[in-house]
Fold this sequence. Notes:
Helices cover 73% and strands 0% of the residues. By secondary structure, it is mostly helical. Helix 1 (2-11) packs across helix 6 (96-104) and helix 4 (40-66) crosses helix 5. The longest helix is centred in the C-terminal third of the chain and has 28 residues, at 139-166. The protein starts with a helix and ends with a helix.
Amino acid sequence: MAAAERLYAEHGLVAVSNRQISEAAGQGNVAAVGYHFGTRADLVRAIMRKHSEAIEEIRQRMAEETRGSEEVRDWVACLVRPATEHLATLGVPSWYARFAVQVMTDPVLRAIVTDEALTREPLRETLYGLGGCLDALPAEVRAERGDMARQLITHTCAERERALAEGTSTRQPSWDDTGGALTDAITGLLLAPVTRRSPAKEART
């Protein structure tokens, strides 16, 4: 799993074969990946699940502390900070954030991991709490901004992880600061005013 995560993060999902993963893991049997995990989707799911379980433990603690809050920022923190807190424990170099970007840009695998993530109660509670603070936003705007927020979290974390692995400068001095910056940005995104479409634009759409 560790070899697959690293190779997928560095080269992309399509470019990496099961043979390459087996060789990188020091396995003489080139069919070891298929034997232990089955399909590539099963392997990806196993890697994501390993990290997701650790992240959801953190989120559960935060959600319990936040329960009852009507502040958007409190619930955004529950969305963001479990990931950055987990990434801080992985050391340097790590590959999970860049691996997650590869998964989220694959339409089939993205659907698999997203559906599984939404079965986890801490995330469901976080999204419910956040949604309750955003009743004034039209449903389609909430959905669109949710997509934007997911992209912002995923790619910001991947860029920081890459910079740390390469020894180049980072925007924030720590994962904790990155979590704070993301929380600020996403809170602003969710609370931004909504521009009403003109009738002409709606007709063209």
